[in-house]
Amino acid sequence: MKSNEFDDGCGRRKILKAATGVGGLSVASLFATGVGSAQTITSGSEGYVINEDGYMEYQGDKDEKYIKKAVEGMNKAKQTGEASFTIEDGQVVVQSEQQSQFTTSDDCPGENSYSNSAQLNGVKHTIKIDHCLTNDVIDAMLAGAGAAQIAAILTGGPVNAPAFVISECAAVLLATGWQILDNNAEGEGVEIVFFLPNVIGVPGIDPQ
After folding, report:
1. Of 78, 80, 20, which is closest to residue 50 (Cα–Cα)?
2. Which residue among 79, 90, 109, 173 is least crowded, i.e. fewest CB within 10 A of its CB?
3. Angle 39-41-44 (CA atoms, 0-180°, nearest 5)?
4. Contact partners, residue 61, CB within 8 Å, separation at least 6
């Protein structure tokens, strides 16, 4: 079991502290659900949009509660200054505002990145999270974190990841459980792979 203490040199304590407070959202929750939110001015694909206040909303037709919960977490990360949202290639993309903290520390082996490639069974999405970020996710899951908390933590890692990818990644992590994540965390972080649409491909978590 991972320790609940975090190395300040990894720059993670602030991220996890913000993430674990997602349950008390007020303004961000309104933005995430669309209730009382401002007029939307920037639309992306997959049902994600950015409203005029710069927060994200999900207006798609997927009846999956984890999506809106994940959006709440991403909005919380924006509210605390950890992330921002942009439109890239028609998609709402989540960008880390603290990228340097996650790529320069020798105490956090591994990398934080996102990539994708076209496959016969859909698009293969690969998210890599480093050692410290992996430990943060494990500790959060041990504490009973949901999609909102996991998504908030992930916004501090993968750079330029589309919002729908972070939502899906949070769902994959919750479905597989902390034990599998912990078993594959061999000191340099993990690689999370999933396919969208998930017709044939099976999600997987492997050591980096």
Report:
1. 78
2. 90
3. 120
4. 47
Q: What's the token pair of residue 49?
A: 């949009």
Per-residue pLDDT of the chain (208 residues; tens, 9 = 90+): 444 333 434 444 344 444 444 444 444 444 544 444 445 566 767 899 999 899 999 998 887 889 999 999 999 999 998 899 999 988 999 998 865 444 445 578 999 999 999 987 789 999 999 999 999 999 999 999 999 999 999 997 787 899 999 999 999 999 999 999 999 999 999 999 999 876 666 889 999 9
Three-state SS annotation for the chain: CCCCCCCHHHCCHHHHHHHCCHHHCCHHHHHHHCCCCCCEEEECCCCEEEECCCCEEECCCCCCHHHHHHHHHHHHHHHCCCEEEEEECCEEEEEECCHHHHCCCCCCCCCCEEEEEEECCEEEEEEEECHHHHHHHHHHHHCCCCHHHHHHHHCCCCCCEEHHHHHHHHHHHHHHCHHHHHHHCCCCCEEEEEEECCCCCCCEEEEC
Report how far apart the first and last C-alpha atoms of the chain are (Å, whole number).
Answer: 20
Place of tokens 């599998």: 180
- The pLDDT of residue 6 is 36
Report how far apart, in Å, the C-alpha atoms of 170 and of each of 28, 38, 98, 110, 164 are: 18, 26, 20, 19, 10
